[in-house]
Structure formats: structure tokens, C-alpha cells
Amino acid sequence: xxxxxxxxxxxxxxxxxxxxxxxxxxTGSLVAHxxxxxxxxxxxxxxxxxxxxxGRRGIGRGDAFVIRPGAWHAYRxxxxxAVVNCCFRARLLEHELLWLVGEPRLRLLVHPGREAxxxxxxxxxxxxxxxxxxxxxxxxxxxxPQAPRPHQVAHLLLLLRGLACELDAEQVxxxxxxxxxxxxxxxxxxxxxxxLARPWRAQELAAAVAVSPAxxxxxxxxxxxxxxxxxxxxxxxxxxxxxxxxxxxxxxxxGAGVGxxxxxxxxxxxxxxxxxxxxxYRARRAGDVGGRS
Length: 293
Hints:
- The structure is a single chain.
- This protein is α+β, with helices and mostly antiparallel strands.
- The chain contains 11 helices and 7 strands.
- β3 and β4 (55-59) form a beta hairpin.
- α1 crosses α4 (169-179), α2 packs antiparallel against α3 and α8 packs parallel to α11 (278-286).
- The protein starts with a strand and ends in a 7-residue tail after the last helix.
- Residues 288-293 have low confidence and may be disordered.
């Protein structure tokens, strides 16, 4: 399976726009693709199978997703799938929407969490919540001629609020955990994500953020939910899964590229995360083909 890349310039919107709403009715399949922007997808009707890094699940009316930049997804077996996409440039998160990092639920939607996920946040919208989000989408799509940008940004926030209010209990707990992440843990997460192939040790990571190893391990486990080296294994497995699908590189090279030079060890660690070997993971998706819509 290959993963196509969609850029902002490829959207049917004005070049200087920062927010765009587009509607699609899909049949068949939409190929796996990622974006250089944030996408909020809301399903209004029909059914399909939604695929991400962690597999596939059936979707229908009331399902919604926030897809972060760089994350890939695909729609399979679409049957009259009516989906509304609200796309916005990632740079909004660094300017007008920068303050969202201080709102736990909104942060969970648009910012990486523990630096280990598939980059897609699913939300289930019951009737009233779906109508609320549909109204926000409509208002974003039809801004007034006077000061349209503030209007769109305001209703984008209302759309995100509508999604955030429907996060499930596990997601809410995760949002709370992220809100309390100490700065030393956040720094350590960035170090790990920036250099996965480095032969990290917990003591070395603790020294890099100037905390004693024992105290660092306690802080990290409390904030992330797993020890530092176990978390590194998750990061490596997910990066490997993405490379298996995005490239035709030999499996051994993929493992070495994320820090697991021993193919047998790579296979064991990958299986522990995804329930199958790297070769099986790639093969199960190799036959997937689909058209654009």
C-alpha cells in the first residue's frame, strides 16, 4: 500500500485561505493519504470502513475524526458516505490557536499526546452534538463578506468545542494526564521523538533533562503511563509501521532505521505492539487499492 500526500495548495480553495470546508459523497475507496494541514471530518450519512495506522473499523452517521498533520487514513468500502471536511493550516496552531495547549480537551484533539498514537482522534457525535457541529461547519463554509476570517476562526473554535465535549471517558482521562505533564517529561518526549534510532538509556535521558534517574522514571511513568524505555519501544514500533507502508525498504532496513538493528528483535517488539510481524503487517495492506474522490 502506498500513502499519498495531500498539501494545502491541492485543496479547492483560495490560495490565501487558512480554513476550508468541503463536502464529498464517496463510493468504493479513497486511497490512504496524509496531509500537511489539520482535517476535521464529520460523517453525515452512509457507511464505510475507516483505516488508520492501528487498523480498520466501521463508521457511519455521527462519526467524526480529527486528523493531525502527517497522520494518514483511508476510507474503504464506502456506501454513499457523505463526509464534511473542515481543513485548516497547521500554522494556525502556532498563532491564533496557540492557547489551545492550555485547554486539556482541545489540546488532545489537535496536538500530539504522548507522542505515540496514530494521529487520528475519533469522536462519536450523538444527534444534538452532530447538529451542533453541522451548524458550525455551515457557518465556516459561508462566512459574511465583512471580516470573514474572524468569523471562520470563531466558528472553528465552536466546532472543536463541540467535538471536545463528546470525548469518551478514556480520552478525557488522557487529556487530564497530558495537562499535568511536567516540563522535564515533555522535554524528554521531544528528545525521544527527535532521535528514535539513538541507543537511549533511561539514565542518559534523565541526565539530558537534569533530573535524577529515579525521580525521572517516577515522573515519566505517572505522566505517560509507561516507563521511558517502554515508551521508546512504542514510538519505534509506530514509526516502523508508518515506514513499512510508506516505503518499499527491506524490513530489516526499516527496523534499523528506528533503532532496532537486529531483525529478530525488531520482529518481536513490533509483534508486541501490533500483534503481527512487520512482514505480515505490510502484506496485509499490500493489496489495498482505491481511487481518489
